[in-house]
Automatic annotation (TrEMBL):
InterPro entries: NAD(P)-bd_dom_sf (IPR036291), SDR_fam (IPR002347)
GO terms, molecular function: oxidoreductase activity
Organism: Streptomyces turgidiscabies (strain Car8)
Keywords: Oxidoreductase
UniProt name for this protein: Oxidoreductase, short chain dehydrogenase/reductase family protein
Family classification: Belongs to the short-chain dehydrogenases/reductases (SDR) family.
Length: 195
């Protein structure tokens, strides 16, 4: 089966927070194949090159920067603009799957880590990058299907995903078409074999 031909993104800069994760690495590969310069906040360029392969890795860049807080996300956006001059697309793939407790058994630590920290990272990245996107740029957030369907013992992941989808709706309403804002729902389990 042949892959559909992707449009060329030569000269475009794409930032992929979460680009070292199971889902993020596929996003990174796709943008590299389309010719974009892909920036991943990570200090692990060697790990990324191993995942995507040496040939497309020529346009892969990493920046040692976090995105967990408003300050970290602002620093990341500032670094990207300083180094590359513009940001065309941002695809946020932070967070992940968690299961194991009913809502009434959720600890304060689990709530903080799975809901608050992930929601804060998504909000911080949107706040920092959306106003800095190029005029025809796009901002995309990746959520799991649990954002729309409740799974027993995984409620806080569902709640966080639903908040993430509402954030996208609010951004769309507030931007009024000035920038594209997307969400993508994962249906099923996307993983990579890493040995």
């Amino acid at each position: 089966m042949s892959m559909p031909h992707a449009p060329s993104l030569e000269g475009e800069v794409v930032v992929v927070p979460g680009g070292t994760g199971n889902v993020g690495e596929g996003i990174v590969r796709a943008f590299l194949r389309a010719g974009a310069t892909v920036v991943v906040p990570s200090g692990r360029l060697d790990q990324l090159v191993e995942l995507v392969g040496p040939e497309p890795a020529g346009k892969l860049r990493t920046l040692a920067a976090g995105s967990a807080t408003f300050g970290e996300a602002d620093q990341l956006a500032t670094k990207v603009l300083a180094e590359f001059g513009h940001v065309d697309h941002v695809v946020v793939s932070v967070g992940g799957w968690w299961a194991g407790k009913e809502l009434w058994q959720t600890s304060a630590d689990d709530w903080q880590k799975i809901f608050v920290d992930v929601a804060t990272s998504h909000m911080a990245l949107a706040r920092s990058f959306v106003p800095r996107l190029s005029e025809d740029g796009s901002y995309t957030t990746i959520a799991g299907f649990s954002a729309k369907k409740a799974f027993p013992s995984a409620g806080i992941v569902s709640m966080q995903g639903a908040a993430q989808l509402m954030m996208r709706e609010v951004l769309t309403a507030e931007l009024g078409g000035r920038r594209r804002v997307n969400d993508r729902l994962l249906h099923g389990r996307c993983t990579a074999e890493r040995g």
